[in-house]
Amino acid sequence: MVQVVAANVTASVAPQDIPRAEPPDSPAVDLAATKLPAGGSDPQLAVTSHLDAATWNHYVAARGSLFHRAEWESVWGVYGLKVYRLAVLRDQAVVGVLPLVHQRSRLTGNQLVSLPWFDAAGVLADDSAAVTLLAHAALELARQLGADWVQVRQASSLNLSPHVRTDKVLMRLALEAEADALWNRLKAKVRNQIRKAEKSGLEVVVGTVDRLEEFYRVYSENMRDLGSPSHSRQLFATVLRAFPDECRIYVVRSGQYAVGAGLTMANGSTMEIPWASSLKAYNGLCVNHLMYWRILAEACHSGFAHFHFGRSTIGSGQHHFKSQWGAEESPLHWYFLSDNEQAAFQAAQPPQERLGWGTRLWRRMPLWLTRRLGPRLIAGIP
């Protein structure tokens, strides 16, 4: 099998050297009057949007949720997006949280989202009463802000609304204690493609801030070729600064030229890969197979129990790629809540057909232009 040696990760540029984007102050909102709906009663419950970051992080850390942490406010702040952290208290103890980002776009509407760009980071609560109160508080916040609906992305069913998207699945792989054991589980075709990449002279280097430029060049070019807007370099720099211990960047090189890259994040016992790309001109060299194998092997070595490949539409090319590693499907539930039932229904429709023309146009644009325009667009796209 392919031998894997864990690399020591060093950075030539310290995370503190990256300028930090502080989130803007959120406008005052009053949710104190939010109550459980008729038929529900718990006088000890109260909702607030003013929980301090330390208390918030203590609650979510105990439940192993990296994407709920308060540090993400600095990431949303790169685009000037306002963040509202709703929390439910019972006798002054936190029993539930729901972070919401306010996004406004002519393409995708005026909405509150928990959370943009990620598979699932919605309601985190101890009981059904807290879940219900958070949902009602989110609707009240939408009314105060003039948002048309609330989008809540969940990894499991909560029955928050009849308007729900279920066309996406999270691809989840159980890992082994040793990389050798995982290698033996792989299909022969996958192992052969990894070997092909190695024989082609590709190599993988690992870092953090020191690999950001290579990562961003590959990522932004790949996103242009896919017809999708890319994030700004500053956003990734801010992620690396906010989560220096959790982030790693893997870069696949052909000679000294970066042809593939992925940014991973440690999320409790799970390793996540929110962003990964490779250059289409090098697809024949099986760039992604080598990169993902290196990541998976090091995840085993580091003691992670699971690896999340991210979401896919069933039957798509991405779904096939992730399935071949043995990843299992876990249904995602994206709920849409609104006082306007028709608006919620329309928002819950998959967007491919509505935005297909934009995808075709984007692929034709020069890279310098998509890098400049991409962040302005993606700031409003969940």
Automatic annotation (TrEMBL):
Superkingdom assignment: Bacteria
Domain BioF2-like acetyltransferase residue range list: 186-322
Pfam families for the chain: Acetyltransf_6
InterPro entries named among the record's database cross-references: Acyl_CoA_acyltransferase (IPR016181), BioF2-like_GNAT_dom (IPR038740), PEP-CTERM_FemAB-rel (IPR017469), PG_Glycine_Bridge_Synth (IPR050644)
Official protein name in the record: FemAB family PEP-CTERM system-associated protein
